[in-house]
Amino acid sequence: MNISEICIKRPVLALVLSLVLVVVGIMGFNDLNTRFFPKFEQNVINISTAYPGASAKLVESSITTPLEEGISGVQGIDTIISQSFQGESDIKLTLDYGVNVYEVANQIRDKVEQARVQLPTNINAPVVQVGWGNMELMDVGFTAPNENPKAIRDYLERNVIDQIEQIPGIADVEVAGANQYAMRIWLDPQKMAARGLSVNDVQMAIQNSNVELPAGEIKGSSINYPITAETKLNTADQFNNIIVKNDNGQVIRIKDIGQAQLGDDSADQSIVTLDGQPGVLLSINNATDANPLDAAKNVNHFLNQIRPHLPNGMKIVPSFDISAYMHGSIHEVYISIGIAILCVILVIFLFLGRLRTVAIPIATIPVCLIASFGAMYLLGFSINVITLLALVLSIGLVVDDAIVMLENIYRHIENGEKPLIAAIKGSKEITFPVIAMTITLAAVYAPIGLMQNQAANIFRSFAFTLAGAVLISGFVALTLSPMMCSRFLKAQGGEPKGYSRIIETIYERMAQGYQKILAAILNKRILVVFAAVLIAVGGFFLAKNIPMAFVPQEDMGFVIAAVSTSSGSSINTINRGLEQVASIFKQAPAVASVVTVADTNAKAFDSVFAMLKPFKDRKQSASQVADVINQKIKQIPGLNAAAFAPSFGGSMQHQLEFYLMGDTYSDLYAVSQKLINQLGNYPGLRVIQSNMRFDSQQYNMTVNRDIAGQLQVNIKDIDNTMAALYGGSKISTFDANGKTYNVYLQAQENDLHSLASINKFYVNNAQNKLIPLSNLISIKPILSQVVLPHYNRLRAAQMSAQLAPGYNLGTVVNYLQTELPQLLPANVKYAFTGQAHDLLTSNNSMGLIFLLAMVFIYLVLAAQFESFIDPFIILLAVPLSIVGAMASLKLIGGTLNIYTDIGLVTLIGLVSKHGILITQFANRLQKEGLAMREALLKAASIRLRPILMTTAAMVFGALPLLFSSGGSAQSRHQIGIVIIGGLIFGTFFSLVVVPVAYSYVYKFKLFLKRFKTTDEMSLSGK
Per residue in 993-1002, pLDDT tens? Predict the structure, then answer.
C-alpha cells in the first residue's frame, strides 16, 4: 500500500497533511523578511588611512605599498585594488567566495598592526572595515533661499546627519554642496618676519591658549564642587586676540601678523544645484548587510518627523530613492503572481471543462505556494524579487503533477471504473512518474549548491525556492490530489455533454491525428534525426550571436550624465559644464527633476542626475532618454560628457571599467593615452577615460639637507612649516553652540598662488633665529597624477567608458578581449572589474552549472529507471528546447544574462518531464506484452493530453512575466521568453524526437539483452 492509497482510504489524513503544510507556510511567511535582492555574503574589506598634507606619491610609497606587502600573505584574497590620493590611501580587498570575511578581517587587522612600524608616525590610524562599497540608498537635498549652503550644512551637521547615521541599516551619510565651518588662521609671512616669528611660534601659542582643563575642586562639608577653567576659544575675535609673543612689553597678537576668520574646513570646493537652486545634498548609504527597504522606510519616517521643525524657508527636496524602484519591482512581481494564478486556472478549465475536475489541480496552488514560504524560511531566504520570481514560475509547475495524476485517474473512470477504484489504480500507475518528475526537476538545481560566486548567490535563492515548491507539489500530488479525485470525480454516466463533450472530441481528434503523424514519422526516422542535428547546429551559431550581459538593462527611473574635466579645473569651470548638460535634461519631457554635483576633490564624481517621472507618466524608457540627451550633448563643442541609464548593481559612474598593469606610471600613461585614441574608433564606446592623467600641476620641493645641517635647522620643522603654510595644518579645535570645529593654520590666500611667496617664509633654527625657507629648499614644477592606483600590488591605470546606444556590455567585452592583447605592449596586462568582471565569472560558472545539471539529472534518471539508456532518450529534447529559447530571446533583442541562465537551467527539468511520461509508459506497456512500436504509439497518444496540459499551464503561468511592466521588467521579460519559447519548442520536439530516439534505442536494448544472464532477466522482470 503506497502513500496515495493510504490517503485515498483516509481522506482526513490527506487533508491534515496539506493543512500542516499551510500552517507551516503561514508561520514562515509572518517571519520572513522582505527585501529587494537576496542577502549576499560580504566578501569585501577596505583599509582606509589618512595622511593629511601628503602627496599621492608619498602616500603610495609610505602607506599603500607597505600595507599591501603586509597583507599579501593572508589566504582567501582574490584581488587587491588600491588608490593613493593626496592625503589618503584606500585599499579594497575582494575575497574568494565562501571565505569567512570576519576571520580574514581579523587577520588583516593583525597584519596592519604589524606594519604600523613601517608607516609614518603622523598618520591617522588605518581603519579596517568589512563591506566597503555600501549601496547608495537615497539622495536628499536641502535648500533655503535665505541661507548660503554652508549655513545649511552646519544646520544639518548639528541636527540631521548624526541622527540619520544612527538609523539601523544606515552605514554613513556623505555631504556635497558645501564644506563644514572651520577657523582659518591666515598668516602674513612678512609681518611674521618683521616681528621675528615662525610658524612654530604661532602654532604653539594657539595650542597653549585654546585648552580646557579641570582646575581642581572646592571641598565643602558635604559636597565637593569641581572647577573648570573656561579657557577654550569660540570666536574669530578670540583667536585674533591670542598673544603670540610679549617682546619687552610689546604684545604681539594673531591679528598683528594675520587674521582669524570663519571659513571652510577643506580646500576642496563643492557646488550642488537642485532644479537650479543651490543647496546641500545628503547621499545616504545603506550598510552592505542591511535591508534597504527597512532602512529607507526608517529614513523617510525620520524626514517626515523633522520637516515641520526645519528653520523657516528650509525645504527637503527628495532627489533619489532606490527603495521606490525596489517597492515597485516587488509590487509588479506580486501582480504577476496573481495574473499567473488566473491564467493557470483558465488553462486547466479549458482543457478539462468541468468545475469539479478543475478544482483538484487548482487546490494544489494555494497549498504549494503557501507551504513554499515555510520552505523559504527554513532555508534562510527572504521575500525578494528573485524568490518571488521563482514562485511565479512555480504556479505553472505545482499543478503539473496534480494534472498528471488527475488525467491518469480520469482515464480509468472513462474506461468504466468507479472513482475510488480508479483513484487507487491510477495513482499507483503514476506514482513513479510523479516521483521521477519531481526529483528530476529538483535535482537540476543541485549543482548550484556547489558554486561560489555572485551569480550563484542570486541563482541559489531562485533555484532552491523553486525546487522546494516542486517537491511540495509532488508530495501534494501523491496525497491530496488522489484523495480529491476519489471524492470529487463521478463515475462515467453516458456521453459527456456541452463543453466537456467539445473538449473530449477535440482531444480525441488530436490524439488520433498525432498517432497517425507519429506513425508516419517513425517510418521516416532518419529525416527527424537529420533535422534535429541541423537545428542543434543552427542553435549553436545562434547562441554565438546573442550578446551577453551580467544583468539586463533595466529602467531604474533615473539617468546619470558623467562630465569629464581636466585635473585642477576650478569649481566654476566644472559647474559650467554641468549646467550645460542640466539645461538639456530639463528640456526632456520624461524628466521630473535635475540635480548637479560639482566637486574639485580628486575622489569626487562630477555628474548630472535626472530623476524621471513615474512609468505611467512617460513614454520613453531611461535608456531612450539617455540616447536623446547624448545626441544633444554631441552638438555642444568641447563638452566631454555622456548620459547613461545605470543597471542595478552596476557602477553609478561608468558602465565599463578595467585596469592596465605595468612597470611604471609613465609607461602606463603613454599606453593609456594611446589606447584611448585607438578605442575611440570603436563605435561601441564613448567618453573613454583613464585616471592616469599627468595634468595635475604640482611643485616638488626638495630640502637641501647639507645647508639645513650647517644652519642647524631641524628637517621636521621645515616639513611642519611647509605643511602649515601651503597644506593648511589642523592644529586645534574649537566649540561653537555644542559642536566641535577644526582650526587650521595657513599662509594668507594671496601667498598661495605664487611660488615667489616662498621668499617670505622663515623657520627657526636651534638658536631660535629665523632662517629664510628659500635658503633651505629648491622648487621644481612638475606635472603629476592626482591618483596612483595599484591592481594586485602592481602599478595600474584604471580605464573607464560609457556604452554607445545599441551596444551592450557583453559585445563590448568580447571586442576588448580580442583587441587588447594586440593593442597592448607585452609588459602591460589588463583585468576587467565591476560588472564586466561579474559577467565573465558568471559565464564561466554558468557553463559549468549547465553541464553539471545535465549530469545530475542524467544520474537521477538512471537511478530511477534502472537504466543508463532511458535517461539518454529523455534528455534528447533538451538541446532542441534550448534552441527554441535562444531563438525567442533573439526575437525580442534580449541578452544572455543571469536571469536567462536561470531559465535555461530550469528548461532542462521542465522538458525532461515530457520524456519521462512517454518513456515510462512505453516501458510499462511493453512489459504488459505490447510490441515496441504499438507500445510507443499508444504511450505517446495517451500521454499527449497531460503533456499538453502541463505545457500550457507552465506557458500561461509564465505569460505574465512577458507582459509585465515597471521596475525590473526586463529581467522578467527575458526569463519569461526563455521559459515560454523553450517549453513550446521543447514540447514539440519531445513529442517527435523522444519517440524516434526510443525506437532507435530499442534495438540497442535488444542487443544488450543477449548478454544478460537468466537470473538477471528474472530479477528485472523481463
Answer: 999 999 888 8
With CA atoms as reference, report the closest residue to 689 among 799, 815, 809.
799
Q: Where are any strands of DSSP class E within 641-695? A: 641-644, 656-662, 685-690
Question: Hey, which residues does 791 pair with through a beta bridge?
Answer: 81, 794
Cα gap 887→975, rounded to integer Å: 13
H or E stretch at 217: strand 214-219
Return the CATH number of the domain spanning residue range 511-545+866-1022.
1.20.1640.10
Is there a contact between 786 and 602 (Cβ–Cβ < 8 Å)? Answer: yes
Distance CA 276, CA 292 (A): 29
Burial of 812 (0-12, 13-18, 19+ CB in 10 A): buried
Give the pLDDT confidence of 682-713 residue by residue, as tens digits. 999 988 888 887 666 667 778 888 888 888 88
Architecture label for domain 1-30+353-494: Up-down Bundle (1.20)
Find out whether 590 and 581 touch, Cβ atoms under 8 Å.
no
From the CB of residue 179, how many other CB atoms can be counted at a distance below 10 Å?
Answer: 18
E strands, 309-430, are: 315-321
Residue 853 — very low, low, confident or very high, per pLDDT cuts 50/70/90?
Answer: confident
Domain 43-130 is found in CATH 3.30.70.1430? yes
What torsion, rounded to 10 degrees, do the Cα atoms 396, 399, 401, 404 define? -100
Q: Which residues contact 133 (CB under 8 A, 6 or more apart)?
A: 44, 46, 92, 288
Q: Answer whether CATH 3.40.50.970 is correct for domain 557-645.
A: no
572: its cell numbers: 566654476
Residue span(s) of the chain under CATH 1.20.1640.10 come to 1-30+353-494, 511-545+866-1022
| Phi then psi dihedrals of residue 278, to 5 deg | -65, 145
| DSSP summary character for residue 761 | -
- All three cell numbers of 504, joined, read 473530449
181-213+229-264+696-784 classified as CATH 3.40.50.300: no
As a whole number of angstroms, the longest Cα–Cα distance in the chain is 128
**Which residues, 6 or more positions from 666, have their beta carbon under 8 angstroms from its beta carbon?**
694
Q: Which burial class, exposed, middle or buried, applies to 614 when counting CB atoms under 10 A from its CB (0-12, 13-18, 19+)?
A: exposed
Q: Tell me the one-letter amino acid at 845.
A: S
Give start-end residues of each CATH 3.30.70.1430 domain in the chain.
43-130, 557-645
Q: How far apart are CA 68 and CA 91, in angstroms?
A: 8
Half-sphere exposure of 558 (CA within 13 A, CB side): 23
Residue 82: C-alpha distances to residues 68, 119, 124, 552, 790 (Å): 9, 16, 18, 30, 5
Q: Is the CB of residue 74 less than 8 Å from the CB of residue 108?
A: yes
- At 272-286, the pLDDT tens digits run 999 999 999 999 988
Q: Give the three-state DSSP class for 484.
A: helix
Residue 48: partners with Cβ closer than 8 Å, 6 or more residues away: 88, 89, 90, 91, 126, 127, 129
Closest CA to 725 of 740, 744, 712: 744
Give the Cα separation of 945 and 404 in Å (integer). Answer: 9
DSSP-derived secondary structure for 397-426: HHHHHHHHHHHHHHHHHHTT--HHHHHHHH
Please state, in angstroms and rounded to a whole number, the distance separating the CA atoms of residues 20 and 28.
12
Helix (H, G, I), strand (E, B) or coil at 684: coil
The closest alpha carbon to 785, from 794, 797, 771, 777, belongs to 797
User: At 654, phi and psi to the nearest 5?
Assistant: -140, 145
Distances in Å between the Cα of 427 and the Cα atoms of 299, 403, 484, 488, 914 are: 56, 12, 12, 15, 18
Tell me how many degrees the CA angle 907-912-915 measures, rounded to the nearest 5.
Answer: 145
pLDDT tens digits along 902-926: 889 889 888 988 888 899 889 889 9
pLDDT for the residue 1014: 52
DSSP for 433-482?
HHHHHHHHHHHTTGGGGG--SHHHHHHHHHHHHHHHHHHHHHHHHHHHHH
